Amino acid sequence: MDKERLRAFLKDTIRQEVDFSQTDQNRGLAPPPVEKPCAEQARRIDLPKADQFKDLGKIDLFTAIARRESVRSYRPEPLSVKEVAFLLWATQGVRRVLDPGHALRTVPSAGCRHSFETYLCVLHVAGLEQGIYRYLPLEHQLVFEFAEHDLAPKVQQAVLGQPYPARAALSFIWTAIPYRMEWRYGPAAYKVIALDAGHVCQNLYLACEAIGCGTCAIAAYDQTAVDRLLKVDGREEFTIYLAPVGRK
Ligand SMILES: Cc1cc2nc3c(=O)[nH]c(=O)nc-3n(C[C@H](O)[C@H](O)[C@H](O)COP(=O)(O)O)c2cc1C
Fold first, then answer.
1. Contact 178, 190 (CB under 8 A)
2. Residue 151 pLDDT > 90, yes or no?
């Protein structure tokens, strides 16, 4: 492998090499939708809104930051839908819709492109059947994607045998839709997509601390297996990061 070429990914020298007049944005193409559409007949679940989170999170930000750690074992008690809603809002919640192609969220994103979708692999959440769900940030809803037999062992296998997602109440699985970032930045899109993922997961760590839960970032996984588990195409949308969540 060419180390220099791989290291160049971390640098911003690409900005001098890209002809930004040729990006889809500057050629006048409409921005892609800020969230992946879902079928008309999909089962949607309304989530408690941010004004109902006041009784969650009894610790201050200093304590949350000081206590943050990767947690790989969890108590068996399920999470509530309200707690899950809080974690979704903390990681991808919409603060303000600017126009049909731009929505500000609780995390920053290069050019406000927000190229992630959030899937949940739900094992133990009170009131939710086991299965794969997806967050709709604009509507602050969950959409039930599908149920899956033997979900716990399948997710464990898909993360190369790491046992935490199978023991967690649920796992966050973030996919990237690179075109959302490419539309604006062309070939300079990829580094900032990776940077953006860090903000999302760090908010999850801190939000988990606030409600007595724990998480652990996972970047080591079988790409094909996780993409298959989510039923995403692996080209226009693919898994980028995971994080199991459970009570401490
Ligand atoms: C980008 C990234 C990828 C990681 N991938 C994994 C992983 O696949 N499996 C795992 O057990 N921990 C993973 N971790 C957790 C780290 O091992 C952990 O953050 C580190 O050991 C420091 O511990 P702390 O988070 O408790 O401070 C990852 C962390 C980050 C930030």
1. yes
2. yes
